[in-house]
Amino acid sequence: MNLWLGKLSKTPPVTLRTPAETARFELESFFPHTPFDLYEQTDMGDAYQIVPGNDGFFSITGGSTGLLYGAYRLIMDTLCGKALSGTVTSEPKYSLRMINCWDNADGDIERGYAGRSLFFRNGRLEYSTERIQTLGRLLASVGLNVLCINNVNVHYPAQLLLEDYLPDLAALADLFRPFGVRLMVSVDFSQPMRHGISTADPLDPAVQAWWKETAGRVYAAVPDLAGFLVKADSEGRPGPFTYGRNHAEGANMLADALKPFGGVVVWRCFVYNCRQDWRDTKTDRPKAAWEHYAFLDGEFAENVILQVKHGPFDFQVREPLSPLLLGMKKTKLAMELQLAQEYTGHQIDLYTMIPMWKELYEELPADNIMSIAAVSNLGDDENYTGHPLAAVNLYTYGLLAWNPDVNAEEAVARWCRMTYDFTDDQEQTLVSLLLSSRRTYEKYTAPLGIGWMITPHEHYGPNPSGYEYDLWGTYHKADRNAVGINRTHSGTGYLDQYPEDFRRKYEDPAVCPDLFLLFYHRLPYDYRMRDGRTLIQRIYDDHFEGLEETRVMADRLLALPFPEPDASVIRDRMNQQLYSAREWCDIINTFFHRLSGAPDAHGRTIYD
Questions:
Q1: Mean pLDDT confidence for 14-40
Q2: Among 50, 150, 273, 604, which residue carries the largest CB count within 10 Å?
């Protein structure tokens, strides 16, 4: 198991109770002959200061969790060969830095590509203590502090809030607590109806009383529970709309129940019409989140956080920043990312995400979000992430959650150095392959901002018409004349949801960045790009380039001396990616060739 803390040999004892105790254990294990002092200052919380002294001596000051984060910072700098040359002070950008697990009670994971659940078996919490400790260690080492352990699509039996199961939840919380990780649970908005109440109306006194009583029972078992995560009125989930209520009324009711215990309600904004008729040319799914939430800005309780997907669709290869993240100034927001590679290769295809995240932050004002969350890529596979190299996404997400200004190349290089014993040249090869992998995947899958040309439901492999006449509102409208959707003021009006400076960047196809061109505009195949190529030629070129880059990637990656079992897993998955890249290239190019009738200017093979 080659993970970034695999070079720490001693397993923490289960007798550890606080993050400060864990910090001392880790430092004594890693620096057995180096004197150090830890100074706990409660008011510092997660922040820390590391001060070097003479003869290798150092001191760390911080809150209990701050001491732990400082200890891991010092250990990881040492693993990377980075000597402490002066005082280091650090505090996180976001107070809530969360992983959302989509694990079900039967042990299955929705959109899971790394085995089965680390937490559940046979309808109960059932796990390996050692593996939970390792997970806690991994999360703490990059400063992640909240873990929601169950699926936002809550499936019954949903037992985490029931009295008979709270001792199991408390025992799991005990294992994570020494690593500064607080648990959160997903709840079903209609849960009161399973307990003798005829409604889930958030303004009904009986419903309010049930949630308050339930919150008291849960917090008696797990006093530091972070709170509840809710998916409501989305994709068949129950919610306030059933009762003519808005989402502020629904979220605030739960927030009131949690407030006495310091808990928060994280309310997902993934709400849209998932029964759209493809003949409907007025409804544009990316507009939905804004239409449901923007008018409620300022109406949510202080302990409500709206969790907004980073883009307006659903974790596609390329999406613009969600307008909610720019427009809701009076509401606490969390940006939601997805580590699980649902649409980005299933942790089979290599896809390093931090370049994409850094692009998002280029559009995001510094003070617009208060928290950050990511859908987990974890499972019970030996390496935790299925593809060994997918662990770079978990690691770099933690660094980004702590400090969004983190340098992408430096973050990836740190992970490589701590994970594998490579020469400098070998390490640089791996770093360059990881950093370029997202763009390579994009080239052979998603032409110029078009998404959803993927096998329905499974979401792996090409199917350019798979969702085109389906009910999910994910259309590209390709015909013999043109492709894309006009989302400017003269089209669906989606672009009108953005501030003026953002609109100006995208509303004119002559200046719109190429990689968003077909997200915002409907254009004919002979449209002339700024580099002189036609639109159809650019589509062909990108797909052929993506396939060729994948072949080069395979040669370079498989020449690296990975240890077993990583080497075997990487080889097998790279071979699958090569097959998938060829399928994408041939099928998408053939699809557009049959529509446009345009030949490839370079005479490469496109199938009739």
A1: 95
A2: 150
